[in-house]
Amino acid sequence: MIYGQVAEAPTGDVAEAPGTDSLDGEWYDARATFYGDIHGGETQQGACGYGNLFRQGYGLATAALSTALFNDGYTCGACYEITCAHDPQWCLPGSIKITATNFCPPNYTKTHDIWCNPPQKHFDLSLAMFLKIAQYKAGVVPVRYRRVPCVKKGGVRFEITGNPYFLMILPYNVGGAGDIKAVQVKGNKTGWITMRKNWGQHWTTNVVLTGQQLSFRVTTSDGVTKDFVNVAPKTWGFGQTFNGRINF
């Protein structure tokens, strides 16, 4: 459930820093497979920490990334354009755009079909996305890919979990670069507190902030920083999600 607290318009000491590292829009070679069923079964939740991908706005346009692309979860939320290439027997025309929402783990017990083992660059797509660029019988196809800006509807969402001594924040529905490299939180009685990446896109602090209005400062991988002011009211609770109102 998204609670109704609306973040205030940024004012004062708000960071609105331009990016210092533009997205790399070059095309690169990789491979792609698929997992789950046509309805997205098995693609929900996953190593990025997202939950119901339909409710969170990602839908079926998702992929699990191999180790070479996953970057220990820092790439979660990044968007890619992918096209099938160099295989006219199985490739279909056109391209897809997906968000990275999961990890395709390596399997060191196998000696063939080791698509997700380092240093392979690999996208394990939802079946619905795979079928847009290749025939089902192909199973695996060579692809070309590039980073693209994420286009999301509405504001960045902030899911709050944990306990009073372990605050955990999951930002999702992030536009622009999509992937996050730094998060800070601020109570109405504190300054900005740097959060630690815990796993996937979960960010944590041990500072007790219960009973305080919360603001968030988020920096995406391209160096763009935005403040989300007074996102959660003093009465916020664990398990709630709040709308940051603005996006990248």
From TrEMBL:
SUPFAM superfamilies: Barwin-like endoglucanases, PHL pollen allergen. This is Expansin. One of its GO terms (cellular component) is extracellular region. One of its GO terms (biological process) is plant-type cell wall organization. It is found in: Secreted, Cell wall; Membrane. Residues 165-244 form the Expansin-like CBD domain. Residues 45-155 form the Expansin-like EG45 domain. It is a peripheral membrane protein. InterPro entries: Expan_Lol_pI, Expansin, Expansin/allergen_DPBB_dom, Expansin_CBD, Expansin_CBD_sf, RlpA-like_DPBB, RlpA-like_sf. Keywords: Cell wall, Cell wall biogenesis/degradation, Membrane, Secreted, Signal. The lineage of its organism: Eukaryota, Viridiplantae, Streptophyta, Embryophyta, Tracheophyta. It comes from Microthlaspi erraticum. Belongs to the expansin family. Expansin A subfamily. Residues 1-20 are annotated as: Disordered. Causes loosening and extension of plant cell walls by disrupting non-covalent bonding between cellulose microfibrils and matrix glucans. No enzymatic activity has been found.
